[in-house]
Please model this.
Amino acid sequence: MPLTQARTMPGVMELLPLDQIAFAEMLDTVRRNYERFGFLPIETPVIEYSDVLLTKSGGETERQVYFVQSTGALEKGEDKRPELALRFDLTVPLARYVAEHEHDLSFPFRRYQMQRVYRGERAQRGRFREFYQCDIDVIGKDALSIRYDAEIPAVIYSVFRDLKIGPFTIWLNNRKIMRGFFEGLGITDTEQQALALREVDKLDKRGADYVRDTLTGEGFDLPTEVVAKILEFVQIRAHDHAERENAFVRILTMVREYSGAEKPPIALDEGIKELREVTGLLLGLGVPQTHYAINFSIARGLDYYTGTVYETTLNEHPQIGSICSGGRYENLASNYTKSKLPGVGISIGATRLFWQLREAKLIDTAQSTVKVLVTQMDEAQLPVYLELATQLRNGGIPTEVVLDGGKLAKQFKYADRAGIRFVVVLGEDEIAKGTVTVKDLRKEDQFEVARAELVRTLRVELEQAEAMKI
Model:
């Protein structure tokens, strides 16, 4: 029988062990910070009912969904849409979860979820069909204070500070401000507003000329002076509280001058009040003023968001784009329950982020999780080597022991290639003296220590290495 070619499909990230350790450490950092802010873990099945996932039939979402069909169904020749599908995000399963367990949950419900999702993306560099999302959401019953919107940037700041990937900025906006501003310029049709917001959201990626040509062109046909006001509005940035207040005054003045009305549209007034309250709480929540700013072009393409919206970018690597995004929504589970469940949340696309950071050389290959290799000098002494390995493991030090023997130089070479830092040698002389020889492969030196002191000594060595990052 001919051999099958070993290969993975495009759009998946399969890592070698040391890179996998680095990825796991990134996930651990995210998880630790989510829990630090009082979020509780949940997991939902990879497979959901198709009618639950696809509450709105057709469209771009359905074209990217992986359906699941058993071999039994195929044998029966069933040609209808399969009953089951793989989840394409974590938000729809969350909506189903909250609706199903609504009476058993405590509100506000604070959840985090870190799992794989699946999308039929077109195969291209940096796009993934299978990837991890790391989400948090706070969901209220009937109402949810705007103060929760301020807590989310504090979580974002804590996560990316601990990831240590360089300076970053959390950009904030409020879609009510955008809708109110459009209304003040005479764009009152909600569908046209939504379409215009999607184009405005492309400003940083495609530039002002693209947005201008699109909004004045066929399909929109907006007056040139209106588009000029929109472009002036969406290019406003505010990096501190003084700039923020100046920006609000400027927006209100622009609307008043264009419309001639004394009072601003209700949505604009509400959005300004909400964004003022959110940004006013950030310092108290531990977010330095250097790490957040208002950006009126941030719309988030989905109409799903109704108020505060967030995007986070790396200051020195703008080409990477948003590394974390989200916002406020009015009713999470309207397709599954009559209860009103407003919420606010964010998502980190961990797989794509890791890949981008590695490409930009912002993440190094990790050290092995195995810290010590116990070598084998004499097969007859194998019980002694096993006992020593057990002593190290019981002392909390991850340890591997050589079971097959072989030349000592080969064992050292194995440890070096596997990323194991410390090698322990226990020969006849060491056994007679009650000592062990420890070789540090990274510092290229060695020392002898009493066997009874080995665990304590290695702990000190490992702690110093971690502290000095050597």
Observations:
- The mean pLDDT is 91.
- The chain is about 40% helix and 20% strand.
- The two ends are 50 Å apart (CA to CA).
